[in-house]
Amino acid sequence: MTETDRFLRACRREAVDVMPIWMMRQAGRYMPEYRALREKYTLLELCKTPELALKVTMQPLRLGVDAAILFADILLPLEPMGAPFEFAKGEGPVVHDPIRDRAGIERLRVIDPEDGLGYVLESIKLIRKELNGKVPLIGFAGAPFTLASYLIEGGKSAHFVKTKKLMYGEPEAWHLLMEKLAEVVRKYLRAQIVAGAQVVQLFDSWVGQLGPDDYQQYIFPHVSKILKDIETTGVPVIHFGTGTTTLLPLQKKAGGTVIGVDWRLPMDDARAMLGDDVALQGNLDPTILFAPVPVIEARAADILQRMRGVGYVFNLGHGILPETPVESVQRLVDFVHEFRHPG
Ligand code: CP3
């Protein structure tokens, strides 16, 4: 077995030589070479210039991870849809003119990815060429709830009050917004696959704000429409969220070849809950990487011991944090690759 197919095999629940590992946000500020590029370019410049997106995508591969993830951001489709934003220093994303009523939702454009996101597709082609089969390339998009939360709140949020106010108060407008976002995301993921993405991940990072009944009513129809369509391409789809312990069975039903699990639920409990007919990804708490190396190793070993058998991809429960020591990330990657189940 080559290094190339370890990750793809795990996604398809086939046997692997050692556990594959990649990390969400594996390209980013914890790496000195990323910070050096960010001194010269803004985040949006890195995303919108395929040669630079290529460079950043390749940076974490020196750690020996089993997959590359396209360097881009989940918010990029918002601009061509008619909701421009910027990444403000220290504040995260800021949508200039948040959308809070039906009229604003009606004005949003259901774009073709080739119009307005062509640079992402170009990056994917460049990256595939450069990777030349070394490791598979993951494409991605944000899920409708998570994208809607930025559109409506205008940035990050603690309680998602404006988002939920629209959802509960104007359900028809909400469903129109979800339909529009789902259609953009569905076409965008398909275009990424055509351009060369070998796996795609749907980031529903903030959907854990909802309980199962609300998920079923306001989210499920839209997410399942995206995932069921992408599944027909044969390309593995990772369905990811955080705070989703009570949502996992519904998320599995909505679709995905691989289900992401955050650190709030032990992986073997997730396996018991979801069964053997789906692959799982997760779930080291990203803050464990700030602990001493023996603690990191013990926690990684604990997860690996819970996940014997096929259909498992090692990852963090959420993205790597900016101040994480690179040496600890390197140790984690090596530890996972060196790990052997006793007996
Ligand atoms: O390596 C990778 O994982 C690929 C690149 C990637 C980025 N964003 C680049 C980025 C990916 C997969 C994302 C996804 C993303 N973006 C999500 C979902 C994943 C998650 O973490 O839940 C979300 C919610 C966003 C929106 C976003 N982008 C926020 C809230 C922020 C600011 C917060 C922060 O970390 O500063 C960003 C900025 C962003 N996107 C950075 C990177 C590397 C920060 C680095 C910088 O400013 O240079």
Give the cofactors and ligands. Answer: coproporphyrinogen III
- Amino- and carboxy-terminal Cα gap: 22 Å
Mean pLDDT: 97
Q: Strand percentage, roughly?
A: 5-15%
Number of domains: 1
Largest sheet: 7 strands, parallel
- The helix/strand series, from N terminus to C terminus, equals HHHHEHEEHHEHHHEHEHEHEHEH
Task: Estimate the global geometry from the Cα principal axes.
Answer: globular
**Number of E strands:** 9
Instruction: Give the helix proportion (percent range).
Output: 40-55%
> What strand order characterises the main sheet?
1-4-5-6-7-8-9
CATH architecture annotation name: Alpha-Beta Barrel
Classification by helices and strands: alpha/beta
* Rg result: 19 Å
- The CATH topology annotation reads as TIM Barrel
- Summed up, the helix count is 15
CATH class: Alpha Beta
Note poorly predicted spans: none
